[in-house]
Amino acid sequence: MNTIEIRAGLFDALQRVAPEVEPAALASDKALRSQVDLDSMDWLNFIVGLHERFGVDIPEADYARLVSVDTIVAYLSARLA
Amino acid sequence: MIEFKLPSLGADMDDGTLIEWKVSPGQEVHKGDVVAIVDTSKAAVDLESWVEGQVHELITQPGEKIAVGTVMAWLLAPGESAPLQTVQPGVQPPAGQAMSAAAPRASPAARQRAAALGIELAHVRGSGPNGVVTLQDVEAVAAAASRVPVDHAAGMRRAIAAAMARSKREIPHYYLAETVPMQPALQWLAARNAARPVTGRLLPAVLLIKAVALALRKVPELNGHFADGSFRPAAGVHVGVAISLRGGGLVAPALHAVDELPLDTLMAALADLVARCRAGSLRSSELSEAGITLTNLGDTGVESVFGVIYPPQVALVGFGRIAERPCVVDGTVRAWPTVVASLAADHRVSDGHRGAVFLGELRALLQQPDLLDTPAPPPIPVGGSA
Predict the structure, then answer these.
(1) pLDDT digits (tens, 9 = 90+) for B7-64
(2) For chain B, is the Cβ count within 10 Å smaller at the N or the C terminus?
(3) Which residue of A has its CA nearest to B200?
(4) Per CB distance under 8 Å, which residues of B are interface residues toward A?
């Protein structure tokens, strides 16, 4: 899977929890949770969405690496390689 | 004959608009069955029946706005037989009969229009001769249904304003707070979550909710309703959870019997409730049965929250952000995660001492997370050694 597909999957999972989000308006290098109003339940649902979409189980210890769109894409790329 | 009246679905609700019936004359109704969808100006709610019976006549029409307490329908009690009818030309069909047997006579144009619009003819009162449903009758129902307010944001704001103003007018609030160390609980949680896939993990909020429910068993005067000058303790521990909606606004539907739920079940129930809340499909029992409400603003990043009690409840528990703070443990200062738990309570029903006992119990429970994952208190060992 290339990074374009991963980004698309990421935005799809994000829009499931936050339907009002415009992916094009997001700064990909800034913390996602500072740009989108996501509480802890939303965040968990987003990670479940990533898990279901990409087939990758994400340990709690790795949550700290999922900060911005760029870091999430990098993490998923590495896991899927 | 049972009068099915519009119940109050919250302190801020005086009236509701019927959106559609989900049952027809002749249909058997059981407790908990959804009989109608009602718009409360805050949200559309699935109205559940609290009685058993058979629908005899639907009185309120879709699109009609009615006050709380209005009789919406008549139900036959189990074993009761229908009174002789002289108005309706149809007969009571056996339960489970196809819709067409219960449908009153209707003109072909009305039948066609109703089918096109997805309107149940059985729900339309006929104005033609002998109660025949005319095309105009069907169109009137369609027009009324489309006038149902869809702008819930304004209605929501008004409802919250009314409830909060009433609360501050009528309820003498007192406030207490306690900083609760969360290291044992979060450590326990991390170990438990590490052993589970992402779909089976618990949020810290679930520990907080369970601890509140268990602590209420020790101080039951914080759980219930104050009405007509007296306090009625709740029969069970149904905890309202304040959930903010994405478009703005706030609802606090109840999780049922929280003190009896294992943590996994509680997590699933909370996730389901939040999802349905945001999708706008809550049930009436969820909006009327909370004996206490919990507001968790930790995700927003505030230190603590001192809230406004949601009438007719008598207490509100608040939680701020779980964060590392200086904490004295065994005589030394450590950097431990802590959370500020707060209690707002009705001074007509409880005094500060009892509120303090509640917060003390809450704190103690959160230091022993193993106690949170049991539905009931641990059994007392019978004879012998532990």
Answers:
(1) 988 777 788 999 889 999 989 999 999 999 998 877 789 999 989 999 999 999 888 8
(2) C
(3) A48
(4) 190, 193-194, 197-199, 201, 203-205, 244, 246-247, 270-271, 274, 298-300
